[in-house]
Amino acid sequence: MIFPLRTRLAASIVIVVLAMGVVSTIVGTRLFADSLVRQVQQGVEQDLNTAYLVYESRLREVETSILLAANDAEVVRPITVDRPGTLASVLSRIRERRGLDFLTVTDAEGIVIARVTGGAGVGDDRGGEPLVGRVLETDEPVRGTVLMEAERLALERAGLADSARIGVLETPRARPTERSEISEGMVLASGAPVRVGGRTVGMVYGGVLLNRREEIVDNVKQTAYGGETWKGKEIGTATIFRDDTRIATNVLDAGGDRAIGTRVSEEVYEKVVGEGERWIARAFVVDDWYITAYGPIRDLGGRVVGMLYVGVLADKFDAIRAQTVWTFAGVSVAGMVLALVIASILSTGILRPIRHLLQASREIAKGNFKTRVDIDPNAANELVELGESFNFMAQSIAERDERLQENARKMTESKKLATLGQLAAGIAHEINNPLGGILMYSHMLREDLKKEENRENVVKIGREADRCKRIVKGLLDFARQTRPERSESNLNHILNEVVALLEQQAIFRNIELERDLSPSLPLIEVDVTQIQEVFMNIILNASQAMEGKGTIRIATRLVEDGGAVEIELGDTGPGIPPDDIDKIFEPFYTTKEVGRGTGLGLSIAYGIVERHQGSIRVESEEGKGTTFFIRLPVPEQPPPM
């Protein structure tokens, strides 16, 4: 039987539309699901790297505290004059000030001469322990994760053994065990030699107990996930394991308490502890499924003694995937129904437009969502409606695809910024260590110098080192989101101080500074040190961009509504290319040569202004210069009484 062309055309369109709808739904949902899983797993792995940074940062803090104690005159003096009986009270004060759980001093042979517990328990030989032995052998500071039995903890300080003791709980999917309790403590420990006149006379060691300590895991969760929840449950969690047992965690059990003492699943334990490799996949955590990342924690000898874990609730991403499947299916079904209705009223005269429509449909199926069909206004109403409906559907799919890509980009960017924030905190801590040494030795040198002019130079060294430490503190505040310490200040005065400091530098000799500072500016509440850092970063960038030649404009004004003060900082440099304007506030983004910049200056400035509830924007034209506009809010005045 030969069917009419209209019937054949309608049948052909029905077959094509049905096939396209089913295939695009299946392929599209599968591709999106696979892409979502990959993105989430990459994000969780970045979160694990963040957790390692937080863990290592806390270990560096312990090492810094031990180094300061080893160089403390109150610790060194009793050792050199053979009066260890006075050390116990000194060690106790240092321990409390530095947040350590224990602090001990030995002689050059590893024999304990003082503990925070007092005179009792001294005289034991610790030279055979890995930490003490390595310090005495290398004569260098050592830090790392160590295990300490209950007896050792009790000897170091009363109550530590009880704090470390954790009952092991039955947990679904965990490996069989006969162990009912963890009595040893996992400790972030460090040791450093005590030197006098180039000779080692003893050593100091101490540490922080990780058992039941929530500081690190809560810091990881806050840094990586903030307070985000899903259906009333925290979306992100972090844990420190001793072997396969949780000793510090913000994973909650069925009763809403921290799941201390619960255990990891057997398959994860075999991979991480047994083989010493990372696990990044779905895993069952206490009572729910998470997309997780586990990594090994090793002691000083390289042995795996525990695990570090981060994870996000899998239920949220399962819901996103299901919603996407239904969205794809709904759009496909709607398109197919629309095509079937139109196909039933088609005639011979629509063959050419249908071919165009079919070609456009194939482009959409390939992912080219910008494809549109041309609509002939003189065509039949049915053809016009079909073309408009197809274009509307293509636009809807394109907009939905753009939203999905934007959401995925924002998720990846937020994880990147969290990791970079921790990296910035780690860099700042590394800079703080040598600055602390500079300050200490400048004070010691100042005591030894007798000539007044030499003493003044040493005082200047100390003053400049103090200023460097304040700058580092500003970087730490940016990385840790520290709240500004505000006071009422005059922005003109702050700008003049910054300019006075910068004018002394060689690069400003051929730069003209134009100032137009409004004399009627109101006082505003700012953190003076942080705002100085903002102005200094922008002005230094301008001078470097102009290569020391040109004009820098500095102006202040009160905006029209009186609700904010605006600061204008402009230069006559080469300007910023349009493609780079949106990137200049990203951390570590820089166009300078390697070694001339870190790319942190403008990102720090952006963070400081944002924490002051202000705004910062930039206008630039290549070849003519760049201008930054900073707005800071004026505090509301109370109504007159």
Molecular structure report:
By secondary structure, the protein is an alpha+beta fold. It has helices spanning 5-70, 73-80, 87-98, 130-138, 150-156, 160-164, 215-225, 266-274, 314-343, 351-365, 381-448, 452-480, 491-502, 528-545, 578-581, 601-611; strands spanning 102-107, 112-115, 142-148, 166-167, 181-182, 185-196, 199-209, 229-230, 233-234, 236-242, 245-249, 279-285, 288-298, 304-313, 487-489, 511-517, 524-526, 550-558, 564-571, 615-621, 625-633. The strands form 6 sheets. It has a 5-stranded antiparallel sheet, with helices on both faces. A 5-stranded antiparallel sheet has the order 11-10-14-13-12, sandwiched between helices. Helix 9 (314-343) runs antiparallel to helix 11 (381-448), helix 13 crosses helix 14 (528-545) and helix 14 packs antiparallel against helix 16 (601-611). It is flat and about 110 Å long. The chain starts with a helix and ends in an 8-residue tail after the last strand.
Could you list the spans in which at least 5 consecutive residues all have pLDDT below 50?
A: none
Radius of gyration: 33 Å
- Give, in spatial order, the strands making up the sheet with the most strands: 2-1-7-6-3
Helix-and-strand structural type: alpha+beta
